[in-house]
Amino acid sequence: MVKRIVTVFGGSGFVGRHLVRHLTADGATVRVAVRDPEDARYLKIMGEVGQIVPFAADIRNETTLAAAVEGAESVVNLVGILSEWRAQNFANVHTQGAANVAKAAAAADVARLVQISAIGADEKSGARYAQTKAAGEAAIYAEFPNATIIRPSVIFGPEDHFFNFFAGLARFTWVMPVFGCPVIPILKWFTDDAILNIDFYGDGGTKFQPVYVDDVAAAIVSALAVEDAPGKTYELGGPSVYSSVDIMRMLTKIIGRKRLLVPIPFWYLAIWGWLLQKIPAPLLTYDQVKQLEVDNVVSEGAKTLADLGVMATPAEAILPGYLSRFKKVGHEAASST
User: Fold this and answer.
1) Per the CB 3.0–4.6 Å rule, which of 37, 102, 234, 315 could disulfide with 144?
2) What is the CATH code of the structural domain delimited by 5-152?
3) 182: number of Cβ within 10 Å
4) Could you give the 3-state DSSP secondary structure of residue 31?
5) For residues 158 and 325, is the Cβ–Cβ distance under 8 A?
6) Of 7, 10, 167, 184, which Cα lies nearest the Cα of 88?
7) Pairing of strands 242-243, 207-208
8) Could you report the per-residue pLDDT of 172-209, keeping only the tens digit for each?
9) Helix (H, G, I), strand (E, B) or coil at 177
10) 36: buried, middle or exposed (CB in 10 Å: 19+, 13-18, 0-12)?
């Protein structure tokens, strides 16, 4: 019996470790293609002996790409960056890197190719991240027309960099940021409950539709198998849309820390992003602020998790399990202001 080989570029990362687990459970032999195979050795315990193979490859190097995809039935490209630093820039990784993977996959007669992009990918976006993600999709289709594009919203899970970051921040400050709210509070006179109400949050700020990492992994496995996935684009989001203030209220309630939620205008964030992006691994960049100006939700009429046979998992069902370590010891969950 011939073994089914799936090559996963960037398989040692957040989404990759969950995808590898799903693929091995599905019986595949997985090549985890990363620049340093040592980074992927921890994954080997997820499968049988020889089922998970760390493999040295760089999406910017055509020779290593060809070796990584040789004999593979399917290829998944998870490689992406959130901020630029020197040669690791968006164009090299999201656009040229994606094109290189697709070209190698086509040359090796790979049956299926799945490219992980992002909701909001748009060549007309004000953010280079979104521009290069869109350019990467175009480059993929030019080389491999039957590729499947997966666009997730913010991905959550035990190792995420979103909820964990803000929960960690709440341990050290009494103030939590809310993005995209009105610069000037809205005054509402003679409402049902008061003569004057001051609305600091408006519509709640930037909208997000967080999707569970395990659902993303399951969707990728499905996209490698279902007949009508080739050539299609899927946008993955959870069952609920949350505003920025909704997310902060939910998070602070889960970890039991009452915090003041302060509206932060984009112009102020942009200044800090411009300053912080000058250091390696910045907490915020100007480009990320531009991304925050656009809601991160599934487009109307888009193909979704349901079209791949995956039921979306509510954030409220998962977040308490891994955010509990941020709770204040000896205190019950409390509401935020």
Assistant:
1) 102
2) 3.40.50.720
3) 14
4) strand
5) no
6) 10
7) antiparallel
8) 999 999 998 776 766 666 666 766 566 677 888 999 99
9) strand
10) exposed
